[in-house]
Design a protein that fits this description.
- With about 190 residues, the chain is α+β, with helices and mostly antiparallel strands.
- The protein has a single domain, classed as MutS, connector domain (Nucleotidyltransferase, domain 5), CATH 3.30.420.110.
- It is built from 6 helices and 13 strands.
- Helix 4 crosses helix 6.
Amino acid sequence: MLRFGTSQSVARISGTRTAAYSNATSTPFSTRPSRASSATGRRSKTASRFGDEDPHIIICAVCEGRGVTPTVGIAIVNLTTGEATISQLCDNQFYARTVHKIRVFEPSEVLIVSSGATPSPRTSIFDVIKENIKDPNIKVLSFDRKYFSESAGLEYINQLAFLEERTPLRLAVEGNFYAVCSFSAV
């Protein structure tokens, strides 16, 4: 699924199959994560239309561009189903949109570029996410910048998409540097 809006671009990759289309309004996802925990870490559950629940492991990566208006790239991957959501949005200094997106997907881990995690007056995304994600089971971890690579992210998209959908998907994520970098980290 591929959605476009004025403030964000989203590419959704499902396993090795990717569907791409342009739409100005948001389209609801087929499943919605809910909370559950296990001894090995936090796992989200997705309720099917039949009422049973399957555990899902969801990882999120966040990459921030520093400027007057912070641009944030978010990649969310469900390791159980192979679904991935890639988005880039313009946020404010409180990162309200970023925190909301993380809360909706309820990941078990949030990965942030280590430069965003260091104490610096120029960035506070690490602190804001830690402060607003109240669930103690969600781990917020910092990773080296080398794992947030645009070229690696584009290569992963190339590997996961169907042959006929690679070009439209690459065109859709073109210019969304931070979103593609986040996808490579996950």
